[in-house]
Amino acid sequence: MKIHYPNGQHPQQAYHASRDLPTPHRSIYAKRGMSLEDEINHSNQYYLARHIAVIHKKPTPIQLVKVDYPKRSAAVIREAYFRRPSTTDYNGIYRGRYIDFDAKETRNRRSFPLKNFHPHQINHMRECVNQGGICFAFIKFTDLDLVYLLPATILFNYWDEADQGGRKSITLTDIQHWGFQIEYQLNPRLPYLKAVDQIIAAEHKGVYHDK
Amino acid sequence: MKIHYPNGQHPQQAYHASRDLPTPHRSIYAKRGMSLEDEINHSNQYYLARHIAVIHKKPTPIQLVKVDYPKRSAAVIREAYFRRPSTTDYNGIYRGRYIDFDAKETRNRRSFPLKNFHPHQINHMRECVNQGGICFAFIKFTDLDLVYLLPATILFNYWDEADQGGRKSITLTDIQHWGFQIEYQLNPRLPYLKAVDQIIAAEHKGVYHDK
C-alpha cells in the first residue's frame, strides 16, 4: 500500500533531502561535516572541562574585502569570502602530545573517496607526523552511522598509492582493519582519546611508524 | 630652522600618525599587533619550509549573520562580526612538543600592561601548560623596537599577583630578567625557537616548573 504523506514525500526521504539542500544554515556553519563537527566539538568541550585534553577547532579562514566602521559600534564585515584552510581543522595537546586531525564525512557505504582530502592537508599532517605529532582523520560513513579514526600514517599509504595510479578510495573493510571504530557514547559523544591512547601504545611498539 | 613639509607634517610624525589611524587596512588585518604578527608569520614560514617546526596563526573567528549564495559563484559573506578568540593566536609543534603562544605589543616604554591579555587566554595557556605544552607570550615594546619571549609560567605569577591587588603591569626590567630577548635577524626575522630550546633545557633542570 502506498501511503500519501501530506507533503508528498516519505518522512525519511524528506529528511535526507533536507540534508542535501544548500540552505544558508547548513552551508554557513557546516559544509558536509556538520554533524560530525558538532560531535567532535562536543567531545572536545567535555575533555577540556575535565582537564583531559585541550583540543579546539580552528576558525574558518575568511578573506575580507569590505568592512564598515559605524561610529560607536563594532566593525561590520560587509563583503568577505570563505578561504580554503591551509592546515587541518583541529589541533591541540593531550598527554603532552601534539594532536592534529581533520574530520570527513561520506555518504558512500563501501569506501571513502580520497578526494575528500586536499593535498595541503595531507602535506600538513606529514609535517606534523615528522615533528612527532599524532595525526589522524575522523571518517564518518553517515548513512551507516559509523565513525572511524584512521591514523595519518595509514592514510598516507593510501594517498601515495592513489597518487601512483592506484585506487582513489579506501574501502570500508580496510578502514575497519587499520582504523579505530569510535562508538557513540553519551558523554563524550565520541570518546576518541581512547583510540589516541592505543595509537600512543602502538607507537611505543613501533607498529604504525614501521609502516 | 623650521622646515615646512608639503602636507604640514614632519614625515616621521606623519608615519606615526598613520599607524594610529583606524584605517580599514590596519584595522582589518592588524589590530595593534600588525607588524609583530607579520614578523612571527614570516618566521613560522621559514621554520615550516625548512621542516624545523609547524606553527601557524589561527584565523580570526567570525560571527556570520548573512551570507548570499549567488548562482555559479562562491558564497559571499554580507554581514559578519569579529569574535573574540577563545584561545591564543598561535600553536603548533616543535621537537615533538606542543607550542602555544600569543603576541602583544605595547607603546609603553617602561612596562607591559597585563590588561593586554584576556582572562580566557591566560586560562587557555594554563590548561596547555598542565598538559605539558610550552606556552609563552611575545611582548613587543614597539617604540623601543624590543621583542621578548616571556614563558607563560612567569606570566601567570604576575597575573595572579595583579589579581590579588598587586601591580597591573610587568616592568620592562622584570621582562628582561625573566624573558628572552629575541633579536631581529634577516631570516627568520624572529629566531624565537632558540629561546624555546632554552625553555626546554630549563624545564629539564626544573627551573621554570619550580616557580
Task: Break the fold down into its secondary structure elements and pairings.
2 copies of one chain form a homodimer.
Chain A: H1 11-20, H2 24-29, H3 34-49, E1 53-57, E2 62-68, E3 76-82, E4 90-94, E5 97-106, E6 111-113, H4 119-130, E7 134-141, E8 146-151, H5 152-163, E9 169-171, H6 172-178, E10 180-181, H7 193-204
Parallel strand pairs in A: 5-7
Antiparallel strand pairs in A: 1-4, 2-3, 4-5, 6-9, 7-8, 8-10
Site (Transition state stabilizer) (chains A, B): 104
Binding site for Mg(2+) (chains A, B): 87, 89, 102, 121
Protein name (chains A, B): Holliday junction resolvase RecU
Can you offer a commentary on this structure?
The structure is a homodimer of 211-residue chains. Chain A is α+β, with helices and mostly antiparallel strands. The first copy, chain A, has a single domain, classed as Trna Endonuclease, Chain: A, domain 1 (3-Layer(aba) Sandwich). Chain A is built from seven helices and ten strands. A six-stranded mixed β-sheet of chain A has the order 1-4-5-7-8-10, with helices on both faces. The first copy, chain A, has a two-stranded antiparallel sheet with strand order 2-3. In chain A, strands 6-9 form a two-stranded antiparallel ribbon. In chain A, helix 4 crosses helix 5. Chains A and B meet through helix 2, strand 1, strand 2, strand 3 and strand 4 of A and helix 2, strand 1, strand 2, strand 3 and strand 4 of B.
